[in-house]
């Protein structure tokens, strides 16, 4: 009887798919993009470093959003952003 119960519990555990809704990957990506932009000396260095970041499908838009976000944080115009 105990063996049967253990087998049923194992089958239930194998069928359960855990989904992470905390978006830690997105937060990490945003942090990486922000730090890359802010630590770059010029736009060429930033572009080169940003090209080296491995983006998954659908994350390209997040890169654009972060570039615009960094640009809007500046108090005055910087030619860095174009």
TrEMBL record:
One GO BP annotation is: mRNA splicing, via spliceosome
Q: List where in the cell it is found.
A: Nucleus
CC terms in the record's Gene Ontology section: catalytic step 2 spliceosome
Domain MI: residue ranges? 28-82
Q: Which residues lie within the region annotated Disordered?
A: 1-21
User: Keyword set for this entry?
Assistant: Nucleus, Translation regulation
Q: Which PROSITE patterns did the record assign?
A: MI
Acidic residues compositional bias, start-end: 1-14
Example GO molecular function term? RNA binding
Q: What is this protein called?
A: Pre-mRNA-splicing factor CWC22
Protein species of origin:
Noccaea caerulescens (Alpine penny-cress)
